[in-house]
Structures are given as C-alpha cells and as structure tokens.
TrEMBL record:
<dbReference type="GO" id="GO:0046521">
    <property type="term" value="P:sphingoid catabolic process"/>
</dbReference>
<dbReference type="GO" id="GO:0016020">
    <property type="term" value="C:membrane"/>
</dbReference>
<dbReference type="GO" id="GO:0005783">
    <property type="term" value="C:endoplasmic reticulum"/>
</dbReference>
<keyword id="KW-0812">Transmembrane</keyword>
<keyword id="KW-0472">Membrane</keyword>
<feature type="transmembrane region" description="Helical">
    <location>
        <begin position="68"/>
        <end position="94"/>
    </location>
</feature>
<keyword id="KW-1133">Transmembrane helix</keyword>
<protein>
    <submittedName>
        <fullName>Putative endoplasmic reticulum membrane protein C16E8.02</fullName>
    </submittedName>
</protein>
<dbReference type="InterPro" id="IPR009305">
    <property type="entry name" value="Mpo1-like"/>
</dbReference>
<feature type="transmembrane region" description="Helical">
    <location>
        <begin position="26"/>
        <end position="48"/>
    </location>
</feature>
<dbReference type="Pfam" id="PF06127">
    <property type="entry name" value="Mpo1-like"/>
</dbReference>
C-alpha cells in the first residue's frame, strides 16, 4: 500500500482483509492484537519521559491509573489518527483504548511487569505468525508493509462492525475488493502479472 493510502480506511481494510481471510487467523488476531497493544503499553509506561512533560499521575482505583507517559502519548496519537480515518469506529474504540491504557499503566507498577509483558508480547507475536503461516498460508502483512501494523486495532473493530451490519453496501464493496486483491496476490505468486494495484 502506498503512503497515500494511509488515510483511506477502505483501502486499508482491503489490504488488511487480503492477509486475514481465514477464520482461525482472524480469531487469533481478534484476541492477540489487543494483547499486543496492552503489553506494549505496559512496557512503554516504564520508559522515562522528557522533563518538559508535566508529571501527571491519577489513580482512579486499584485497577485504573493514568500517567502522562509514552503509553498515554502513543494512545493519544493513535486515537487522533483513528478519528482521521473513521470517526464513528474511532469513537466506538475510545473506551477500549482507554481501558487498555489505564489497566496497562496500573500493571506497569508491579515488580515483574516488564518481564511478564515482554513474554506475553512475544507469545502474542508468535501466535499471529502461526496464524498467518499455518492457517492463512501466507506471510503477515507487516512483512510487506510495516506501516499497516498501526491501525490494526481499528481495522479489526471496523471489520467486526461490518459483520454486525455496519454499512452493508460498503462491506460488500470491500469484500469484492479484498477478493480481487487475494486473487492478484495468488496470481503474482504463481508468476502471473499483477492485475490490480492498491
């Protein structure tokens, strides 16, 4: 996908769908993409922040903590990007991102948080690679486009919303585009010239 497609969610869903069409692989991603985000937030919460960032520390309860740290900054940038991509889906995603951030920040204060988060993070990547190579039968999208990783949580939300009836005409159009992209990739793999470029 070209850089111009970064702000075109329909192209991103088509690209994402071409790598996630097998049901077991999709289920693996629905479970482990949020886990990857959460464990990243735990690890990033432990990084020192520059002195110009004000020290904000709010304990809402024993499970929910907000710190103005790299995880919070990352979450804010993601949400801003998600609102630029798809405001409705982004709005639906705000509670999940908020809960992920607040619980990850709380967990980051545990003595073994970094080790636990790193191990779960690596295990989540392993599960997704297994889903791609064993269930899907092709390499992960990030091998072809590392930038695609960033909106994965929003794309999964939007794909789930389509499955529940959100914008059915658009869903059909994206499914057709995804099927065409899968056919293009299979043809290219077989040595045929590419028929369509996203």
């Amino acid at each position: 996908m070209s850089l111009s497609g970064l702000f075109n969610i329909n192209k991103q869903i088509t690209f994402y769908g071409a790598y996630h069409s097998q049901s077991v692989n999709v289920l693996i991603h629905l479970v482990f993409v949020p886990v990857l985000l959460w464990t990243f937030q735990v690890m990033a919460s432990q990084l020192p922040v520059p002195s110009f960032i004000p020290p904000v520390h709010l304990v809402l309860n024993e499970y929910l903590t907000f710190d103005l740290n790299w995880s919070a900054i990352h979450a804010g940038i993601y949400l801003l990007y998600y609102f630029l991509l798809e405001p409705t889906a982004a709005l639906l995603y705000v509670p999940q991102m908020t809960l992920s951030l607040l619980t990850a920040t709380t967990f980051s204060y545990k003595p073994d948080a970094l080790t636990t988060a790193a191990l779960v993070h690596l295990g989540s990547w392993a599960a997704q690679f297994a889903g791609h190579y064993l269930a899907e039968g092709r390499q992960p999208a990030l091998i072809d486009n590392l930038i695609e990783v960033s909106p994965a949580t929003l794309l999964l939300l939007r794909v789930s919303a389509h499955a529940l009836g959100y914008k059915p005409a658009l869903r059909k159009s994206i499914q057709a585009d995804t099927a065409a992209e899968i056919a293009r990739v299979k043809a290219a793999k077989a040595g045929s010239p590419a028929k369509k470029e996203l």
